[in-house]
Design goal:
heterodimer; A: alpha/beta; B: alpha/beta; Alpha-Beta Plaits; Pectate Lyase C-like; 14 strands; elongated
Amino acid sequence: MTEIIVVTSGKGGVGKTTTSASVACGLAKRGKRVVVIDFDIGLRNLDLIMGCERRVVYDFVNVIQGDCTLKQALIRDKRLENLHVLAASQTRDKDALTADGVRRVLDELIAEGFDYILCDSPAGIEKGAHLAMYYADRAVVVVNPEVSSVRDSDRILGLLASKTQRAEKGNGGVKEHLLLTRYNPRRVASGEMMSVDDVKEILGLDVIGVVPESPDVLAASNAGVPVILNDESDASLAYDDAVARLLGETLPLRFLEEPKRGFFARMFGG
Amino acid sequence: MMTKPADAAAPAPAIDIRFGQVGLIQVRLRSTDPGAILDELTGRVASAPLFFQRTGICLDLTLLGRDPQLEEMRGVMDAVRRAGMLPVGLVGSSAAVEALSAALELPVLAPFRPQTQTIPVVQPPERAEPGIPALMQHQPIRSGQRIYARSRDLVVTSTVGAGAEVIADGCVHIYGALRGRAVAGARGEAGSRVFCQEFHAELVSVAGVFRVFETLPPELAGKPVQAWLDGDDLRVAPLSS
């Protein structure tokens, strides 16, 4: 059984692509066959985060338009052999995506026997975002603990509940999960940032993961190594927990408290 | 705007043709006297204006026991319209009804109905109108969504998000948090009210009188609250326990 998971948010810059890359790697590390698709036509980013930007020959739009086969366009990850990337086109615009075309590519991937298809949605609620969510079985809604991101996520959750194939056919709807990123416990404690509980209450959904704000995320993006592969980082551990919860494990949330600072750090403002 | 994927490539078609069922009030004529019809219908409309005003009805001719003339029917339709209802079709099965249908430009609905002259008439004229159950919403109403309960109450068992709108011709009941907009009495019913379990509303309106909450008064924020019309004033107050 293939599961289609959309990673979406409404708002831009909250960490959709970072999350798509890390969740895809986390699933692949657990032995699942995974393909991650960049739906952001014209603003290709996922290949950079995955570190395969120089290996992109054919892309998603080429497959849809029949310029190449799916196999030619799938880029196998060099670190995890059961992980594949389908890059977005950088030169086309979003009208190159069609519902039929997306359906055909997804069907072909399902026939290939992938366990998970991750759809990395563009920001906004336009066509690209719509098509990324339309065929999804589950949705990971990435949200930052601030009011505009929460508002946009609420909008996206409304669309997931009405403008997806599962919602239209009435077969149970899309299963929704919240993932908080850029969480800064110190700023939450000082009241500058919304807490996990605030976000949960407003959106009325349970949280599948809380990723702490960390310089490791930016460093990982620039290096083209998804942050989940950096074993020393809190952000990596938090993503790994989220993947485990996505697969049905029950784990307590971590990194919700400010890390304890040592005596010298406190004395000298480290 | 999002488009449905089926028409994502081509421009959106101008129309969709669907087969659907709609509830329709039937007015069975036992006479074609326009004066009598106007009197009786006006009484009905006055008893439940929200329900009957500008409601589509079909005229059932089967109880007349004869085929009315065109001029008689024009009189009947005029009376119905003056009572505030809108005739949208005829019910009858004779060839004469077909001819009337063409002349009046009204469709014949249910032409298969058998002649009913022999069926005894059991139609207590003073029967109370059955209540319409409230429109129920169990999913959260998300930002950007709009729910309208026509001619009835709206019950939301979950939350109404910021930027969402819940509207009813009757009352609005929210058994969760109200963070968006709530509009009761959308067609002017001044007795309608808004109730919510946890008040954080952006806007509340009853029968066209509204109040915007730029800042939430501390005595209302997060509390169970109701809003109602007191004369021309919109009152918003905690529900006393």
